[in-house]
Amino acid sequence: MRLVVGSALIARAGITLTSDSPFPAILTSVFLALCGVLLIPGLWTPIVGTLVALVETWHTFAPARDPLVPLLMGTIAAALAMLGPGMWSVDARLFGWKRVEAPPRKN
After folding, report:
1. Are 29 and 21 in contact (CB under 8 A)?
2. What's the whole-model pTM score?
3. Which of 25, 62, 72, 88 could cross-link with 21 by S-S, CB 3.0 to 4.6 Å?
4. How do residues 33-47 score in pLDDT, each as one tens digit?
5. What distance in Å separates the CA atoms of residue 66 and residue 52, rounded to the nearest whole number?
6. Residue 77 lies in a domain
7. Model confidence at 30, in pLDDT bands (50, 70, 90)?
């Protein structure tokens, strides 16, 4: 999930940066591209996922865009923020991979 969202953020930012866009759109695209660069290796995933989810929620309700792509990206970013980066990530190497296990059932 990190790879898909990160590369999609970078690709969308590249499209916006190569077109003739207003300054706020360029600033937002640079921010989302940096977030994509952090998401791909899994660095600060809960923080970056929350920020991407907030920005993409804002883009969902912007009148000039198609709302489906930002809605999907925001939903996946929110899921990454809640689930965490996974076992193969920089966060897991730096802070340890935490796993939630259900206690055994009592008969």
Report:
1. yes
2. 0.84
3. 25
4. 999 999 999 999 999
5. 17
6. yes
7. very high
